[in-house]
Amino acid sequence: MLTSRSLSGALGVSSTPVRAALKRLEAAGVLVSKAKSAFFVKDPDQVDFKEILDIRLNLEGLAVREAARHATKKDLVQVRALNIEYERLVTAEHGGDESLIPNYEFHFKIYRLSGSHTLVELIANLWLRIGPLFHRYVSTRAKSVESPHYHHDIIQALASHNPDAAEIALRKDLLASYSEILPQLAPRLPAIAPRIWRTEGLPGKAYEGIGG
């Protein structure tokens, strides 16, 4: 549970900007409010995650394709440095959560090379929505070299200015984590059909409505 009062106390700032930030995260679909002043991190179910993945594959695929067309040698030096730090942490004894930061920076350094601020902004919103799932994923998965391997493939595609190869490598990277995270999520519960109720009103006239 998150409240503006508890967060403002922890951060040492006024509650007004904190509540404004919480409301922005709620509008972005990251948080949900379930009480008068409390917010909770939204927990996507399997259907939510599949929908977000489909959108990510398209948006991030477009971004990495554009990045492959524009990446310079200087850009690649920075991308490789981020991936080295990611590899160091992802294989460390207790580096799981810490590896999320260089992984984020690796991907968004590439996406920004697309030159599209709007595209990067849309991708960032989707990452916000599934950020908590990444934490769950790294805390339960076994050590794997798949993601660093796909990162190398992405870098090679950028270096050779090959948009098709870059998108293929990115898709493999995203799908690898998807296959491990999905079983950890709750399935979508079937919707409950509305109950029809009938009440007697004026003499000789009946009324129908939708009941909860």
Describe this structure in words.
With about 210 residues, this protein is mainly alpha-helical. The chain folds into 2 domains: about 1-40, no CATH class; about 45-185, GntR ligand-binding domain-like (Four Helix Bundle (Hemerythrin (Met), subunit A), Up-down Bundle). It is about 65% helix and about 10% strand. The chain has helices at about 5-10, 15-25, 45-70, 75-90, 100-110, 115-140, 145-160, 165-180; strands at about 1-5, 30-35, 40, 195-200, 205-210. The strands form 2 sheets. The protein has a 3-stranded antiparallel beta sheet. A hairpin with a 4-residue loop joins strand 2 (about 30-35) and strand 3. Helix 7 runs antiparallel to helix 8 (about 165-180). Mean pLDDT is about 85; it is low at about 205-210.
Helix content: 55-70%
Q: Write the CATH fold name of the largest domain.
A: Four Helix Bundle (Hemerythrin (Met), subunit A)
Reading the helices and strands in chain order gives EHHEEHHHHHHEE
**Tally of contiguous helical segments:** 8
CATH superfamily of the largest domain: GntR ligand-binding domain-like
- Using the alpha-carbon principal axes, give the shape: globular
Q: Give the N-to-C terminal Cα separation.
A: 27 Å
The number of distinct β-strands equals 5
Low-confidence stretches: 204-212
- What's the level 1 CATH class of the largest domain? Mainly Alpha
